[in-house]
């Protein structure tokens, strides 16, 4: 029986994780559930899964949650704030951590899990994008296990040799092929993208995701962040990570080998597949996802991304080439710009412009520790805010 802390349990990844947990009560129990402000949803999850600890963002939310839980007769401990997230991620009673807090907010708790030697199911790509070598070093030093949850990186993980040790050359690997759906605007005229609304941007044609990550998919910044994530997860240089548009979202990613072989992982677009794969690794368990019927799909299509349509993808490659804190700057600027777009403060095509301005303004320093990283993130956000009105 393994105990899991689900960080970000009311988001789409968290909900899917708990669905898998609920299918295997003989294998998994919940140690902790966390949510920032969705108290009602978190309370309902606590009633079903009886965690030892529940964490929310503020003291006020904690008080409301505690009242709800006590009314249900639950004795779940209620805590709040960033340190509480780190505590449940590193607790001795926890075996496995689903790191699914969106954005930079998930960085500290993911590092805490790594330093505690936990099995980390990494759904928060921003944590690795920002911290890069810091997180990889913490995983190695404390003998933690890092398993990717992004469907693309989990697909790559499944296609790699079983003894892979973060060296493409040692594994006979030519390159990594990241697939991308292309989002909702793949065929929309580029000169009409200025008028895109938030509701249009979050209407992903294949995946059900949160609003922020849905906008990232529409701009393909999501794929750019995944390129950086793949670099750190698999030791792949930028010129050996290739992005391919694949609108059907059936092939989740591929690995090309030096002998000419290409291995692909296929499946229906449902995050419970990579979640179940990582939770049970190296075993396989039922995820609740329907079996893939290729005869119903008929044809699979591929094309190269158009960087005029998706400039955020190029910005991510630029950040990876630049190194240092450039990826953290990219991520911070993107979070500010996407939030501004969702709040209708800027237009859709302003997102990449804000990011580019911030990257031009700030030097790409060396990342030495988490405090320096958080400070760089703070500065980048401030500069991004100032760029929103230019």
Features:
Rossmann fold, 7-stranded parallel β-sheet, 4-stranded mixed β-sheet, 390 residues, 11 strands, alpha/beta
Write the topology of this structure.
Blueprint (H helix, E strand, L loop, with lengths): L1 E6 L4 H12 L4 E7 L4 H11 L3 E4 L2 H13 L5 E4 L1 H9 L5 E4 L7 H9 L3 E4 L2 H7 L1 H9 L3 E4 L2 H9 L13 E8 L17 H4 L9 H9 L1 H14 L6 E5 L5 E7 L4 E5 L5 H9 L13 H4 L13 H12 L3 H17 L7 H12 L8 H18 L3
Parallel strand pairs: 1-2, 1-5, 2-3, 3-4, 5-6, 6-7, 8-9
Antiparallel strand pairs: 8-10, 10-11
Helix pairs in contact: 2-3, 4-5, 5-6, 5-7, 6-11, 6-15, 10-15, 11-14, 14-15, 14-16, 15-16, 15-17, 16-17
Short description:
With 390 residues, this protein is of the alpha/beta class.
